[in-house]
Amino acid sequence: MVSPDNALSGRKSPVLSAPKPHAVNGSEILNRPAGCEIIFLAAGCYWGVEEIYWETAGVKTTAVGFMGGYTPNPTYEEVCTGLTGHTETVRVVYDPQQISIGEILQIFFECHDPTSLHRQGNDIGTQYRSAIFTTTDTQFQIANELKAAYQEVLTQHGKGEIITEIHAPGDTLFFPAEDAHQQYLSKNPDGYRCHSKSGIACPIPGAGPLHLD
């Protein structure tokens, strides 16, 4: 992990200066409709993770960007050098009346391998590390509880330790990526998807396991 002193300097202006409507549902990608909540999730390459969430009932809009590092307003190319400290992250806006935060996080833990440090499949680097950036105390509490519960299940199956970072509300800033990366797999249907799943269901109260392919 790069140190703050050695990180790239970045820039003052956002690289996504004029966000376009969501390529799938036409929503404002950086908006939050009344009654909705936001959580930021890093589970490897953000192209495929964003697709999973825009297809999830109860999710109102999604956007991709970078969090957890030191460089302000980084470009995708800068993040890929590993010299910004950021991880590829999806901004998920959801209606808690339609989908619970537990279900949102169940999808997160099941769509990648949370025991893999700085790597998902063939994607290697600190920009692919697993992380949850919460925006409410309830999200923070449930994320930690679910991580502990899933760890018990993984341990029973001989898996390693979950290394997912869980950040408290307000702990870090979200920097949206360039327009070409927003809803990338809608614009490029045959594009790259990398999900290195553990194949083990993550149990939560009131929701059954997902079907893992």
TrEMBL record:
EC numbers on record: 1.8.4.11
InterPro entries on file: Met_Sox_Rdtase_MsrA_dom, Met_Sox_Rdtase_MsrA_sf, MsrA_MetSO_reductase
Catalysed reactions, semicolon-separated: L-methionyl-[protein] + [thioredoxin]-disulfide + H2O = L-methionyl-(S)-S-oxide-[protein] + [thioredoxin]-dithiol; [thioredoxin]-disulfide + L-methionine + H2O = L-methionine (S)-S-oxide + [thioredoxin]-dithiol
All copies of domain Peptide methionine sulphoxide reductase MsrA, residue ranges: 39-193
Highest taxon, organism lineage: Bacteria
Entry's Gene Ontology molecular function annotations: peptide-methionine (S)-S-oxide reductase activity
Keyword terms: Oxidoreductase
Active site: 45
Protein family: Belongs to the MsrA Met sulfoxide reductase family.
Purpose of the protein: Has an important function as a repair enzyme for proteins that have been inactivated by oxidation. Catalyzes the reversible oxidation-reduction of methionine sulfoxide in proteins to methionine.
Database matches in PANTHER family: MITOCHONDRIAL PEPTIDE METHIONINE SULFOXIDE REDUCTASE (PTHR42799)
HAMAP family: MsrA
Name this polypeptide is given: Peptide methionine sulfoxide reductase MsrA
Name of the gene encoding the protein in the UniProt record: msrA
